[in-house]
Amino acid sequence: MRRMNRRSFLAQSLAATAAASLSQAATGAKLALGLDHFAVRATGWKAAQFIDYAASLKLDTMFISELHVFENFEEAYLKSLKEQADRAGLKLYVGTGSVCKTSNTWKDIYGTPEEHLSLTIRIAKTLGSPVARCYLGNQKDRSTDGGIQKHIEEIVKTIKACQSKAEGEGIKIAVENHAGDMQSHELKALIEAAGKGYVGANIDPGNAVWALEEPMLHLEALGPLTICSSVRDSMLWEDENGAVVQWTAVGEGLVDYKAYAKRFAELAPGVPLQVETISGFARPFSWKKDEFWNIFPNHRDTPMFKAWLDMAKRGHKIDSFKAPDGPAKKDAEIAYQKGEAERSFTWLRANA
Questions:
Q1: Mean residue pLDDT across the chain
Q2: Alpha-carbon distance 114 to 96, whole Å?
Q3: Phi and psi at residue 324, to the nearest 5°
Q4: pLDDT tens, 258-291?
Q5: Distance, first Cα to last Cα, the chain
Q6: What radius of gyration, in Å, describes the C-alpha atoms of the chain?
Q7: Superfamily for 31-232+252-277?
Q8: What is the C-alpha separation between 240 and 236, in angstroms, rounded?
Q9: pTM of this prediction?
């Protein structure tokens, strides 16, 4: 009887462990890690080389976030990339740039905004990407006539024009908060206006800091809508005009990435945390000057800005990176960018 009880207990324990493991897989509890190709942009690689690099790092995903990285858009070529990624155990994610024709960042190299986004959706479908990432513009758009709202309305038109194609292909359109163009409440409103059923957020906590938002609060606002990511850390420090921001490798800035990764997995289960380090330069934010607030009306007295300011109070100045002039410049840039990305993965694997 004692042996039977013991056997029964062991069987129940093993079954419970297996069930827990299956439950974790089903809910996306294991946080997948990936690379946004822009992190190592100095290499000048094409898609196949980025896939090989991500495979060498034993990552889960490879995010090709710009279309020029592809050698062409022919189906045979794209299918060969998917086969390459499949052999390496990598899931591909696909993105492009601005699809907002009123933005200062808009370029018509892939046709109209609708044609551009439709092309991205087709590429995403062929490569097995669950999303087609795009963005509105950058912070300069906030200073134009009509402010950011005019551009939000324009990009919503483009997204809605592609709704039937996206839904027909089973692809979701991921809109990034890009280069300080939108704050979290604005991107949330954009997604809701376009339609949450087929549109979500490509969350970028570094760009959130450029929009004077604290990354954890930004995550709370957009996490439930997040379907893709491009992440890095940030260092802030105070100066005489306000504060300065410099992006860093994950774990080397002020964001509590252990807490961030945990909450990310809870709010966006199954979505990979994809590293896009863009480090080495500092950007000032002269918030003490009244004219600065023209592009961020009603933000100065918010809890979000107070949390951002608290980051700056806790931070300290760090040196910027400058590659030496001469023939070794490109190699130095590549080594620096690889180092930033690879240290990020090392930190996340050890701590997240």
A1: 93
A2: 13
A3: -65, 145
A4: 999 999 999 999 999 999 999 999 999 999 999 9
A5: 44
A6: 21
A7: Divalent-metal-dependent TIM barrel enzymes (3.20.20.150)
A8: 13
A9: 0.92
